[in-house]
Amino acid sequence: MSAISIFCTNSINILAGINGIEVAQSIVIGLLILLNDSFYLLPHRPHPHPAEDSHLFSVYLLLPFIGVSLALLMHNWFPAKVFVGDTYCYFAGMVFAVVGIMGHFSKTLLLLFIPQIFNFVYSVPQLAHIVPCPRHRLPKFNSRTGLLEPSRAIFTPEKPLNTSVGEVLKILHKLRLLRVETDAEGIVTSTTNFTILNLWLVWRGPKREDRLAMEILAMQAVVGLVGLLVRHKLALLVFSLDNRQYSIV
Predict the structure, then answer these.
(1) 121 and 194 inside one domain
(2) pTM: predicted TM-score of the whole model, two decimal places
(3) Given Cys at both, which of 8, 13, 33, 58 links 97, Cβ 3.0 to 4.6 Å?
(4) Residue 109 covered by a domain
């Protein structure tokens, strides 16, 4: 429970840096949780589902949360008039942690956080300072084109990159998991920062800020729907009980 509480709050906070992305990803996750709740609450058996009360609790918390988040998004979407900062990120993460823990569906909750899990794992080399981590890793705005480009971590002779780490970065560059720059001697001089927003720009090229946000949100929604499909269609391959049908028979 402690791990989920810590992860949910911080995972929203590190998938950030462009207008609207913190609030909008929270709304998408909240709507996906409500969809999961509906599977337990919609009438499909003569008797209520045993987990009905837990999912009603989830609905009671998420409906006002999504309502105020939609209102906030109107002012936080590109071009933003207000910025949410850490306060909203921690609040949103704790809402999800509470409904997942108290609703007894924390494993299902993690299926909806797959992009955030990937972003965290992908960020670990910089978070653990294996690769130098700048203070800010948000995408870089190109004032000439008006588009966002991947931001970079720069390595200097005074603070050189470990040689073995540099070789690993070159391999990741070939796999298109980041983009590195090297000097004439083949020494890595810079790399794109390790966040999913920068990685998306490596894959998809420079984008306007609202376009980048929309694509990330679409990815979040698709991955979440696939997670729910896995949970509710493939669960019976592992478990004898599920929600829509209480048993395999």
Answers:
(1) no
(2) 0.92
(3) 8
(4) yes
